[in-house]
Amino acid sequence: MALDKSRRSTAAQYFMDEEEDERNPRSTAQKVVDWLNKASLASSSSRIELLSKVQESIVHKEVDLLDNFLDEMLAFLTDRNADVRKFIVGFIEEASKKDWDLLPRVLPSLQMLLTDSSPQVQKRVIQAFNVVYRNILGWVAKATTVTDDMTSVWNIQSNIKKMIVDMVDSENDGIRTHSVKFLETLVLLQTYPEADSLKRENDFSLEDIPLGLKIARRRKLEEEALTVFDLMVKFHGSPHISSVNLMACMGSLTLIAKMRPQFMGKVVAALETLHTNLPPTLSKSQVSSVRKHLKLQLLTLLKHPAAVDFLQNITTLLTDLGATYHEVMKSYPKTDEIRKRIKRSATGALETVSAKKPKVVADTAAAPLPAVVTETAIDITEQYIMERMCPELATDMVIMAMDNVPDAMPPLFAAIYTPIAAAGTQGQIKHVARLLATQLNAVGLGPGAALAKSTPVLRDDDEDEDEDKQRIATLVQGVVGGPPPAVPPPPTLNLSNIKHPKRRALKLSEITRPMDERKRQKMTVDAVRRILRTEKNALFGGVFPLYTKMVATLGTTSGEDVKQTVLEFIMEDLRKRLHLALAWLYEEYSYMQGFNRLPPALKTKNYNPEMNYSSLLRNLISAIIHRPDIKDRETLLYRVYLEAPMITDEAIEILKELCSTEVVCLAILQEMVVRRPPRFLMYINALLIHTSHENQDVRETAINCIVALHTRIDLQSIIEEYAILYLTFLRLPKPPEVLFGPDKGRPERSEYWTEEAIRACLYLYLVLLPIKQELIHELAATYVLTGADVKRTILRVVEQPVRAMGMHSP
């Protein structure tokens, strides 16, 4: 039989032992003794396994053995291994659930482990005390008399609570998180539920504590809970809180608001403050996580019936956090719930007063009851701000705060900033007023904070017996001996008597400091670029002339950086933006001619309007010439020369040089002769020079342009005199210098008359000869004075023009 038993697996042997234990209860105690002895000698892992068997046996199977072996289990509290000590904490938690009478024996051990050197053990103690504290309250509430053990337990638990509250400031992040969860439990256990409270199984509250219990006074417990809640709100708004602690505290406050709706207003205010003042120590990823968690908690609160009074605040926060309309409406309370909540709020005060029975039923009903302050300090301050909020006040606040704005945008602001969807609406103004009221109330400023300080504390029915007796005696004496003492009304705050300090006129020079020149130039250029990018918006909006005027004025009156920026913008698409360039030219021309005058503040030492105009025109022409990728280059060049208010000498020289390679420039010169009469001599002279060019295309194009201009009577004499001048050059012993040069197509000068040089002097003359036949006399006079080479060349080239004169020529 022993051999068969040894062959079984460990699990089979365990279940077989359980069956034997059920048949023989004494064997359980023997096994527990055996396991405890082995555990004292075993290794850490084996020790926890053996202690688990002991716990299973004495806690869940044979509860009667728990009292016998409790001290032996608590002896392992001093074990060196932290895991063993953590296990003992769990054992104490389970033991307190099974038998509340064991609390006097296990609670000192729990207090000792709370000061353990291992953070893991401390966290496990805090976690276990959430259950143990609930058991303590239940044990005390069901007791008929207060014993010495209860008094001892109550004192120990008070010390443990103080220690855990102090651990909120611990250096360990996990300990702080577990401490916050315990504070949540404490607030829920030591406050009253309401009709809208979220219900949980085996829930415990102040209603479960008897009124006459001396050791646990309802009023003191509630005051302690309110103090702890304020501590949680303060910890929630700490600027150095970690993201893990922040989200844990946020979840705890949300749960408190759902289970104790009387805290809903303070929780919403805390979440509003968090939204505007996120801790600066959070990274971008942590900020994103916190904002998502905040959005989730707000959506959860929105579903609660008690959130009806704060719908506008919650929905505004959700909108700022990026929640969609569908998400908000999905969590929005139903209409029936809103109606029920409003009806319940209207009758709630009356039900509350009638539910509490006065201890002395006398003529005290005739005495006036103190008014119940339903508005919180934040609500009063918010109303105070709303009544005075105006655009002028908001502007003054912004100007006063500008001195504290940093030079660089904080990464936290860039991470959390979202555009305001409903800016300027009444709801958004109210939201801003509430945020300001929250911050003012946090530092003890504003009418709400003043009223909160002066409001008397209302006592509950469960006062100390001595105080009750004194109060009853006073009331009886008042009834017998004379009228009852008058109850002073609660203090009211007269907002109209508040004196506002005179606002000193702000000077911009006092609240600002000079900006670095380089930074100022960069900001100016960036602003100009943003203006330039609004070209399409101006076109579609019907204000394109104003846009053009603005761009032209910026280019004219600004510095070199802005001029270069505007010029680069025009050159990006010169074909479509040539009108901007021409408008700029006309603006420069108006300043150059004195039609407009630049303000003295914008003038510099090197200000020269003539140079500015000439430089702009040169840059435009050079940009067209040196960018062959531009479509319709000829048309653009044509428009610049013909539509510019004035053509400078430099621009004419550029055009003359370009005529040697671009034939279209000759046509431009022809049009300029006709359309720009004030300087037509300069334009026609530039055209006549190219009639003797060596390049055939250039020469023929120039001659055709001159022939077309010869039809104008006012230009005939000029053209004929130029042709005769070149004809008389043939009388000279050697060719003149004007026939040579890069612009004539003959870079090297010749000392002798060559056929090319002779023909260059005859090109224009021979074309005009059939048109103006009287010019034949000049040819005869020149012919007799030339050399033999020149005469031979004249005879070869003159035959065709003479035939064109016809037989009937006079």
Structure commentary:
This protein has 810 residues and is mostly helical. Among the domains are: 246 residues, Leucine-rich Repeat Variant; 125 residues. 66% of the residues lie in helices and 0% in strands. The chain contains 39 helices and no strands. Helix 6 runs parallel beside helix 8 and helix 13 crosses helix 21. The radius of gyration is 50 Å and the shape is elongated. It starts with a helix and ends in a 5-residue tail after the last helix. The N terminus is likely disordered.
Helix content: 55-70%
Kindly identify the CATH topology of the domain at 27-272. Leucine-rich Repeat Variant
Low-confidence stretches: 1-6, 352-374, 456-501
Count the E strands.
Answer: 0
Describe the global form. Answer: elongated
CATH architecture of the domain at 27-272: Alpha Horseshoe
The amount of beta strand, in percent, is under 5%
Overall pLDDT, averaged? 78
Largest sheet: none
Multimeric organization: single chain
Alpha-beta classification: mainly alpha
Q: How many individual helices?
A: 39
CATH class designation of the domain at 27-272:
Mainly Alpha
What is the CA–CA distance across the termini?
Answer: 158 Å
Whole-angstrom Rg? 50 Å
What is the CATH superfamily of the domain at 27-272? Leucine-rich Repeat Variant
Summarize this structure briefly.
The protein has 810 residues and is mostly helical. The protein is built from 39 helices and no strands.
Overview features:
single chain; 810 residues; mainly alpha; Leucine-rich Repeat Variant; 39 helices; elongated; disordered N terminus
